[in-house]
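About this split. The held-out portion is used to measure sequence recovery: a designer receives only the structure tokens and must propose an amino acid at every position. Recovery is the fraction of positions where the proposal matches the reference. Here is one held-out target exactly as it appears in the evaluation file.
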């Protein structure tokens, strides 16, 4: 195989324009550009994907280029060893993430090319490294805390938290940083309430979660931060054993004690929910507000038609390029013909939900934010057996934050020019460092 170092920074209309322009439209047609001719087996190039930092809503040109390919390609990421296959098109991603011949459990003990050092150093027993039927058992345990009824009980508490945070922001005066006053503390408060984490254990958790999810700048610090979060979870589960309660920590402890899951699985499940539930929602919700504040016509429509908020949140989830790189791969347990290639047993396969969400064969004008798409089967929360168990909670948080901001602040606006904002470098989940606003 030859190596290709020229495909990581192709020209792209979104990079040549301005950040706000990335929402309004794209000159690309509704169909895929002409596909590159298939290459014979054994002649596949390895595309180096360095995971460059991109700002605002710029879509990674590497992924835009991959959507022009007719087939899966080989990639090499910054961490780990070797190379892997990448699925980019919606149909290919859907097929790969539901095919039982691709296994997450086969990752354990292996070092593959990866976006993050965590995928190499933290192969703990968890949802991420399980396959059905074991995966189904673990999901059933966690789902006890994520029912519709549970979300209804949590919503008034979450609303009170939002109101209190915004009250404090108003007391601090204009302008104010929404990341500091809302997008940072709110997701932590909600997921901590879900877990039953006392205030004493929440100190510095936003900072630890952010460091854990920003391996590009300091991989060791990121890994150490994740270890600190896990130590906090161990303390929480010990506390819940001593003081039983009806919360997610209580559910996990009861399931571990009953033999439904192991203790390491309980720790890993709680750790993953805390880190992703804090960092991902923090950045995704801030990205949503940025998108609306830089496109007042979308904001004005939601003010006029608040009933569109749930539909708008789904479209924002599809549209926002929140992730840098890809998550965890799967390992082929046998030879598989898929996406125009033969994947051999033992080879790693990545699936890009980000690219799938911009596939023009599924989403016409994919680079346009369009609240009239109606119900959309986006993959912002993954697909198949590993679909995010906390998707209902994340939607509720985003809808609540958006609705409350619209209701309270009819004149909400950025307090600085959009092109002066700073975006988190080296982060797995992209988001603004600060979001100064006035009202």
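Reference sequence for scoring:
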């Amino acid at each position: 195989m030859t190596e290709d170092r020229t495909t990581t920074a192709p020209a792209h209309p979104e990079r040549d324009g301005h950040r706000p322009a990335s929402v309004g439209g794209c000159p690309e047609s509704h169909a895929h550009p002409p596909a590159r001719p298939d290459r014979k087996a054994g002649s596949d190039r390895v595309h180096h994907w360095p995971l460059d930092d991109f700002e605002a809503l710029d879509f990674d040109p590497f992924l835009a280029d991959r959507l022009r390919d007719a087939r899966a390609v080989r990639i090499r990421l910054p961490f780990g060893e070797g190379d892997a296959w990448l699925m980019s098109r919606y149909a290919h991603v859907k097929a790969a993430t539901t095919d039982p011949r691709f296994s997450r459990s086969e990752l354990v003990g292996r070092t593959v090319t990866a976006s993050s050092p965590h995928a190499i150093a933290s192969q703990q027993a968890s949802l991420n490294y399980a396959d059905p039927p074991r995966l189904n058992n673990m999901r059933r345990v966690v789902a006890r805390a994520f029912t519709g009824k549970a979300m209804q009980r949590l919503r008034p508490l979450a609303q009170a938290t939002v109101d209190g945070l915004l009250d404090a922001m108003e007391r601090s005066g204009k302008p104010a940083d929404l990341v500091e006053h809302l997008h940072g503390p709110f997701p932590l408060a909600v997921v901590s309430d879900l877990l039953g984490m006392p205030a004493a254990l929440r100190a510095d958790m936003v900072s630890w979660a952010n460091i854990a999810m920003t391996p590009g700048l300091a991989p060791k610090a990121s890994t150490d931060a994740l270890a600190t979060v896990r130590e906090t979870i161990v303390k929480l589960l010990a506390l819940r054993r001593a003081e039983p309660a009806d919360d997610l920590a209580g559910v996990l402890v009861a399931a571990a004690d009953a033999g439904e899951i192991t203790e390491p699985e309980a720790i890993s499940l709680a750790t993953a929910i805390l880190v992703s539930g804090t960092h991902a929602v923090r950045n995704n919700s801030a990205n949503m507000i940025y998108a609306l504040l830089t496109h007042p016509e979308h904001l004005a429509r939601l003010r006029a038609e608040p009933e569109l908020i749930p539909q708008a949140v789904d479209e924002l989830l599809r549209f926002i390029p929140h992730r840098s790189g890809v998550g965890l791969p799967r390992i082929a347990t046998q030879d598989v013909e898929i996406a125009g290639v033969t994947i051999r047993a033992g080879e790693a396969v990545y699936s890009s939900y980000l690219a799938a969400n911009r596939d023009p064969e599924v989403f016409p004008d994919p680079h346009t934010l369009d609240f009239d798409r109606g119900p959309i089967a986006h993959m912002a929360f993954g697909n198949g057996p590993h679909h995010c168990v906390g998707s209902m909670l994340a939607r509720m948080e985003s809808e609540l934050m958006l609705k409350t901001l619209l209701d309270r602040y009819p004149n909400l606006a950025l307090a600085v020019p959009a092109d002066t904002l700073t975006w988190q470098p080296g982060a797995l989940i992209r988001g603004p460092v600060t979001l100064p606003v006035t009202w």
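Annotator remark: The longest strand covers residues 73-76.
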